[in-house]
């Protein structure tokens, strides 16, 4: 799945209030395996395992609130690649 979303960010530098009012969220794209499509968020993982011992685990989880999502695309993966 590919997700385009607006992300929060922080800066620790002093900024004039007039300039701070002009700041925007950072738009980014994230690609990962869809773990869950919940009511309020999409949950992706960047890694999944293929061996029997670890196949119930995923790694590098990202939770993206749906209110931050601009658009998303699901891609079909050939099952032979996943096995």
What keywords describe this structure?
2 helices; mainly beta
Structure in a nutshell:
It is built from two helices and six strands, in the order βαβββββα.
Account of the 3D structure:
With 83 residues, this protein is mainly beta. The chain has one domain. 10% of the residues lie in helices and 46% in strands. The protein has two helices and six strands; from the N terminus they run βαβββββα. Strands 2-1-6 form a three-stranded antiparallel sheet, with no helix packed on it. Strand 3 and strand 4 form a beta hairpin. The model has no long low-confidence stretch (mean pLDDT 92).
Work out the helicity level: under 10%
Query: What is the makeup of the main sheet?
Result: 3 strands, antiparallel
Summed up, the domain count is 1
Averaged pLDDT: 92
Structural class: mainly beta
The CA-CA distance between the termini, in Å, is 18 Å
What is the fold's blueprint, element by element?
Blueprint lengths: L1 E6 L9 H4 L5 E6 L1 E5 L3 E8 L9 E8 L3 E5 L5 H4 L1
Antiparallel strand pairs: 1-2, 1-6, 3-4, 4-5
